[in-house]
Amino acid sequence: MTKKLLKSASRCIAALALTGAAGPTWAVESVKIAGFTWPGYGFWHIAAEKGLAPDLDIQYQTIEDPYESFNLVAAGQLDVVSSTAEFTPVGVERGLPVKLVAFGNLSYGTDKIVAGPGIETAADLAGKEVAVLEGGLAQIYVAMWLEQNGAAYDSVTYRNIIADDAFAAMIGGGVAASEFWEPYGTNTLKALEGASVLAQSKDPYWLQSGVIADGHYMSDALINDRRDVALLTMKAMYDAIAWWKQNPDEGNRIIAGGMSMSLADVELVIGKNGTGLDGGLYVYDFMEAAQFCGSAPGNPPFDQKNGQINDHWNLVSGWWVKFNLIEAAAPPETGIDCSLHKELYDSGYRG
Prior knowledge:
The chain has 15 helices and 11 strands. It has helices at residues 2-19, 43-49, 66-74, 88-93, 137-148, 163-172, 184-191, 204-209, 220-225, 227-246, 248-259, 263-270, 286-293, 309-322, 339-346; strands at residues 29-35, 56-62, 80-84, 98-107, 111-115, 129-132, 157-160, 177-181, 196-200, 213-219, 281-283. Helix 5 links the parallel strand 6 and strand 7 (157-160).
């Protein structure tokens, strides 16, 4: 044993000598992540700035078009995409090598259907134009709300206008209503006299169903070929969320800087106290996301059920068939991979 220890020590000394006076170095794995400008994805900036993943070089880039991000995954130029959670059935039908690995956060009032003057009911919208992100959650949200309120989902004309452009279209009378996320909804209500909220995502039905949410996607190559890196990446995100919950003031400033947003807009979306209940977006911690994925015991919040991610898949798939975005619904396992959550949970990690 003594001889073995001496040999091991001599090898370490030789290795140190090769590294020079700076001491030993370790290989750092690069992880390329993209998402659009949204505070709910800002935890990647916290993970990088606070050094929560020393074995990773987290490179976050802002790409406003999620379809561009997913195409870059297919081209091998991105590893992770943070985006809304409805894309996976479309990606599966198009053969993209990507999986939804986690629910990230749930809309807790930040999403609203705002109507212009004189529009009070779903029936009032019949034959009129509504601004949405076509092929996105906004379109499903409006369609479901119409049906719940006695109108056909196709009784309106959907116009693919979002954010600032939708705000301008509402103010100018170009559309009768729009689905907005913050701060655009609040700004529209302030600027357009007679505007009103027809629906908002904090209502219990929308919370329980989990329809309006963000997710995190990983490439098949990251999950399968660099699994240790995939696990470290997921852990870094949840460590950043846990850090933010304890340090919301500093965390919000980091997110505002990383996203080039005002601190006020960040606080409007994710709140000021780290609970996720004082803003417009509820952030899932590790255990809640693992429960939603069915990879840990217990139920997620808002009367959701264990493993509800599969129900979410089936719900959005059905709507994409209605909107002719996909031909048929595929099984959830073709686009969802909860094994990373399970592996972290089984290792003892709890976020």
